[in-house]
Design a protein that fits this description.
The chain has 218 residues and is mainly alpha-helical. It folds into 2 domains: 135 residues, Alpha Horseshoe (Serine Threonine Protein Phosphatase 5, Tetratricopeptide repeat); 61 residues, no CATH class. Helix content is 72%, strand content 0%. The radius of gyration is 18 Å and the shape is elongated.
């Protein structure tokens, strides 16, 4: 997690470190960059300004894991300035969206997530940005718009995060039996193959319990 400088050997070391550690760390702190698909997207563009970009990005990861908000914002902005048009910029913008949510600025978070949707060429990152945007819309009380994104995402890869989001939106709409089904699906998927980070089985079970809906009597 310590930043490397330029040098080709250090770039290769960063790739090895990122493959082993990057995704679980980012998923655990709430960015969740799409697992293996996002790694492949990163790898595919690693040749673009590799030495400088990887150094910048690792500094961003370090700031992220150490929760250094000011440093994180600065590193993200620098990546956007220097590597706009690369997958690094999309990752950095996802980080800025997270900071905006934590600051209570949902409008700014929406703008960042929309930027990712407008600029990334990678389907996995577009899907992730839509998941995040749906959550922001839900937090803003715009449940119908959030549901529209849930519908757009339904044909993509199945995941606990998607089913949890679906359950959250359905619950906000008062469609409790359907929300229960979504949470149950999320619970089956949580912790399974290809799943890392949130949601946890414990948090999903709490949401199920909070619904207070029993299965109908036979």
């Amino acid at each position: 997690m310590d930043p490397y400088s330029s040098d080709r050997e250090q770039v290769d070391a960063l790739k090895t470190w990122w493959r082993k550690n990057g995704m679980p760390i980012l998923a655990g702190v709430g960015i969740g960059l799409g697992g293996l698909y996002a790694w492949r997207a990163w790898q595919a563009e690693a040749h673009v300004g590799a030495e400088q970009a990887s150094s910048r990005f690792e500094q961003l990861v370090t700031a992220l894991t150490e929760n250094k908000t000011d440093t994180l914002a600065g590193q993200a902005e620098q990546i956007l300035d220097e590597h706009d048009g690369t997958v690094y910029a999309s990752f950095a913008t996802l980080a800025l969206a997270r900071l905006a949510v934590e600051a209570g600025d949902l409008q700014k978070a929406r703008e960042h997530l929309q930027w990712v949707l407008d600029h990334t060429r990678h389907a996995s990152l577009k899907r992730l940005a839509k998941l995040r945007l749906a959550r922001v819309l839900l937090s803003a009380g715009e449940t119908d718009k959030a549901w529209s994104l849930v519908e757009e995402l339904k044909d993509g890869p199945e995941s606990a995060s998607y089913q949890e989001l679906k359950g959250d939106v359905l619950r906000a709409q008062g469609r409790l039996p359907e929300a229960r089904q979504a949470y149950e699906e999320a619970l089956k998927l949580a912790g399974g193959a290809g799943e890392s980070g949130p949601p946890s089985q414990t948090s999903l079970q709490l949401k199920l319990d909070a619904l207070g809906i029993s299965d109908p009597a036979p």
